[in-house]
Write a structure and sequence with these properties.
The protein is α+β, with helices and mostly antiparallel strands. Helix 3 crosses helix 5. The radius of gyration is 15 Å and the shape is globular.
Length: about 170
């Protein structure tokens, strides 16, 4: 069991079965993880849950069901109360996954390879998020100084994982 009572967990994972989007994210970004999410203990349900931007929309899923389909690559315990994180993330519940924003992030990453300055994500949607974007937006909202260097629209799961390792 994850045991997230009293704090929030930032997690990174890959699916257990082949997924073309996950494969492309890992291949294109040279990443160990293709997905970023947060987990917490829901006291009303009495279970650990994962909040994630999923290909079928932003959702909350039981942690025990999540790990049946995902390999956890890394987790970080954050010193943030779950209710503050979830209040922010609840804004996206039921919204669509930002596939266009993911493509735009890919163009930004391509620009990095060619040494171009940061390219603004041309396809970002104000009404949808992808996984690492949702996590970065929440973290910046809760602690803007600590996470100021991260750009939600252009941060890959590996960028976020590398950042978390560097500050741990």
């Amino acid at each position: 069991m994850l045991r997230t009572v009293d704090n929030i967990v930032l997690g990174f994972s890959t699916p257990k079965i082949w997924n073309p989007i996950s494969w492309l994210v890992r291949k294109f970004t040279k990443s160990r993880a293709s997905h970023a999410w947060v987990a917490y203990h829901d006291p009303m349900l009495g279970i650990d849950v994962v909040a994630e931007a999923h290909e079928f929309g932003f959702r909350i899923i039981r942690y025990d069901k999540f790990i049946k389909r995902n390999n956890v690559v890394a987790i970080f315990r954050l010193n943030q109360p779950p209710h503050k994180v979830m209040r922010k993330m609840s804004e996206w519940l039921g919204t669509m996954y930002d596939f266009a924003g993911l493509i735009g992030m890919g163009l930004s990453i391509l620009g990095r390879y060619f040494g171009l300055k940061a390219i603004k994500n041309p396809f970002h949607s104000a009404d949808a998020v992808f996984c690492s974007e949702s996590v970065v937006r929440v973290m910046k909202d809760l602690d803007p100084v600590r996470y100021e260097k991260l750009d939600p629209e252009n941060t890959t799961p590996q960028d976020l994982l590398d950042f978390m390792i560097s500050i741990s």
